[in-house]
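forwarding from the other thread:

> can someone predict this with 3-methyl-2-oxobutanoic acid?

sure thing
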Amino acid sequence: MARISINELKAMKERGEKIPMLTAYDYPTARLVEQAGVPMILVGDSLGMVVLGYDSTVPVTLNDIIHHTKAVVRGTQRAIIVADMPFLTYQISPEEALRNAARLLQETGCTAVKLEGGSEVASTVQRLTQAGIPVMGHVGLTPQAVNQLGGYKLQAKTPAAAVKLMNDAKALEDAGAFAVVLETIPARVAQRVSSQLTVPTIGIGAGPFCDGQVQVINDFLGLFEDFVPRHAKQYAQVGQTIRESVQSYVAEVQSGAFPTAKHSFGMSKEAPQELAAVYGGAR
Ligand code: KIV
């Protein structure tokens, strides 16, 4: 079965059809997300925080993303799979970015890569897209720059910053990006950018006017409980479900209520005598 083409996303924008996107980091989750109708999955470097327990995305390595993207690709057949390029895998030079992006495509089977930044990464986006690697841009709050931004704060708040962000998004489109993530910016700025670009904008904390939305699945499922970002809507309380299930398991193992005959295995009728013969009747 062929995967959805990135060209289909632009057609969706033209038809006014919103694009739902979610992150996933493993085989079973990716399978469920695709089965539920999500056409594009991001193996985000948010992996570092919501799965690996780091306090930012900065420590995530290319090998981490490769490992998790392979699982996501194995779990899906139709969805576009976008692999995030981790911190310092694309900033040193366009050539190094190309080598690393090529590893992501060749070793994982993903469709596209995503990288953070505006005009300053436009030449890199161009180098990758000219080599046939689809690139998703990412502007606004760029979490890999958290140490420079001084926290996970609203971006493009002032008119000057909003104009800069619009120019950055346009530079990414001109460099060949097939879509641009807008993270944690005012809804009106996102609306303006979305109307200016011909490629789809995918918002997270950027209001309702983007062409698509992306959410981090562990936030969305209530599975990451350290903090809940304001832009995250919890559609389930999976963390609480896991805790309660494990509490029941602990109680049942301790009381002897689990396992029952249903979860145990018997032997043939003759086996007890045969065993007794082998073991000399010892139990
Ligand atoms: O890493 C990630 O999950 C992301 C999304 C928040 C867009 O970059």
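The two ends are 55 Å apart (CA to CA). thats all i got for now
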